[in-house]
Amino acid sequence: MQANHPNGASRGGIGRRALAPLAVTVVAAVTLSACGGAKKSSDGAGGSGGGNDTLVVDTSFSLKTADPSRTFEPTGIFVTRAAYDTLLTFANGDVTKPVPQLAASYEVSPDGKTFTFPLRPEAKFNDGTPVTAKDVVFSFNRVKNLKGNPSFLLDGVTVSAKDEHTVVLTTEKPDASLPFRIPTPALGIVNSTAVTAHGGSDAAGADQSDKAEQYLNTDSQGSGPYKITKYDVSTEVVLTRNDNYWGAKPKYGKVVIRNVPASTQQLNILSGESRLSLDMSADQAAKVKGQAQVLQKPTPTTAFLFSNDNPAVSKITSNKDFQEAVRYGVDYPSLLDVAGEGSAQAAGIVPGFFTGALDPSAAIKRDIPRAKAALARAGLNNPTVDLYYASDVTINGINFGDLAARIQANLKDVGITVALKPAPTQTALDSYRNGTEALGLWWWQADYPDASDYLAFAPGELVGKRAGWNEGANPAVTALAEQARTATDEAARVDAFRKLQEAMQQTSPFVPLLQTAQVIAANNSVKNVYYNPIWYVDVDKLG
To answer: How far apart are CA 266 and CA 288, in angstroms?
Structure first.
């Protein structure tokens, strides 16, 4: 689908967000010094977390643009979430239920194809002008016609204004996942008048004609609780409280987001140089506990293994009995030891806290006798296979080389010799995207918090094809995927996604391994810290 992500364009391995690998293994672009090894902000923040009215946030940047219609990198999403409101959002980290933000409410037609959003009359942009349906139509059409990484969020969606304060979205097919995509910060609403005046376009061909990105990098045009007042992709981003904000005013008048290595983030939290850290490993978090708040939560990043289903790539890995041997030969608890506290075994390909996930009790358990019996049925005696992975990537503190070595040891117990084939990310991406890896160790990070994002693993879909599981490979699974895609009743959706994953556990080339852990550390003075798996935290809710 999109670019620069092991599966297409996502952060991680990956959903669809841009520059996935760099989103999780970033080396800071500046040398930091001063208290705790951190650089004092040029805006005067620094020491004691920047003063009572300033929140200093340390993170390793994955950042390209402040234009919400173009951004899909982790740091960019975190930043634009604070500056641009969306029609719907998620409250207090609960991603199972979209709630109104710019929309006062929303209504879905009985056929699941029409979504109506009356807008809040009090909502206004940071220059004081009202938010209207015209702005929503412009913003959504601009996302679609820029054809950037976020554009897939509106595939098959038509946007129109019923009147000045009512927006209608229509879809080609029933689409119960749309309300879960709407809160994505890339669908933040921009001031259409201001953006148009500075070269913006929502028309067909906007990918060539739109010139507003540079303007939006220096002057944000949203209705969010903050304005972007400094934007440097190498060093820091500064958010300043929007005095025209229509909702509850945020406590912190200024938020300084700094590009800081994870090791320095630990020191800064302990010294009080910063108040919030987004990138510590589980080992670093252990050294901070007791002196600061620490959240360690499973993320929607699923690490997975696949055995290529294409006989032209490997007659060994495409053998269904071999795939069963791999599935039951992995020692899943030992992988959690590598991943660290807060990680969790993936029961299925859908993360455990998404609607439609399998119950943890359904997770595959290691069964060496079963694995050996499957290998014997395959007629394979001590087979040797190559395992490919990106050698220069660390996901939420997990080195994929360590994970690969553990899998190698696990499968040796079964009688499978695994030859490790590490490669730099870009080299590994080429073989992964081209579907030429016999065994592959990758990861997928959700683009939005709904099980539908994982339909990419079905036969003939984006990730399915990477694993040689091509269209027509398993018609029964394909039919289950289509049922899950088009179901509108919540109970029916849950049932469809669970049946799909149960079938994949038996017949797919994929072995879901674990959900990585996100570590968020905060000074004890910071209140209301809730983890959101899409944009980390709501900075405007911190107190």
So the answer is: 7
CA–CA dist 487, 356 (Å, integer): 12
Q: Smallest Cα–Cα separation from 294: which of 526, 522, 515, 532?
A: 522
SS3 165: coil
Enter the tokens of residue 21.
């690998």
Taking CA atoms, 494 is separated from 99, 108, 179, in Å, by 20, 18, 16
Stated as kind and residue range, the H or E segment containing 431 is helix 425-433
Enumerate helices (H) and strands (E) in the chain, giving the number of each: 17, 19
Task: Give the position of tokens 């993320």.
Answer: 299
Angle at 169 between CA 105 and CA 138, to 5 degrees: 100
Residues 307 and 475: their CA atoms lie apart, in Å, by 19
**Residue 51 one-letter amino acid:** G
- Report the distance separating Cα 446 and Cα 444, nearest Å: 6
φ, ψ for residue 236, nearest 5 deg: -160, 155
> For residue 41, what are the CA distances in angstroms to 182, 230, 250, 484?
34, 11, 21, 48
3-class SS shares of the chain: helix, strand, coil, % to 5: 35, 20, 45
Give pLDDT tens digits along the chain (543 positions): 333 344 444 433 455 543 333 333 333 232 222 333 334 444 444 444 555 799 999 999 989 999 999 999 999 999 999 999 999 999 999 999 999 999 999 999 999 999 999 999 999 999 999 999 999 999 999 999 999 999 999 999 999 999 999 999 999 999 999 999 999 999 999 999 999 999 999 999 999 999 999 999 999 999 999 999 999 999 999 999 999 999 999 999 999 999 998 889 999 999 999 999 999 988 899 999 999 999 998 999 999 999 999 999 999 999 999 999 999 999 999 999 999 999 999 999 999 989 899 999 999 999 999 999 999 999 999 999 999 999 987 788 888 999 999 999 999 999 999 999 999 988 999 999 999 999 999 999 889 999 999 999 999 999 999 999 999 999 999 999 999 999 999 999 999 999 999 999 999 999 999 999 999 999 999 999 999 999 999 999 998
CB 122 within 8 A of CB 246: yes
- Residues with Cβ within 8 Å of 256's Cβ and at least 6 positions away in sequence, in order, are 41, 43, 45, 50, 54, 55, 56, 57, 236, 237, 238, 239
Query: How far apart (Å, rounded) are the C-alpha atoms in residues 263 and 261?
Result: 6
Q: What pTM value is reported for the model?
A: 0.88
Tokens read off for 14: 């990956």
How many CA atoms, within 13 angstroms, populate the side-chain half-sphere of residue 82?
31
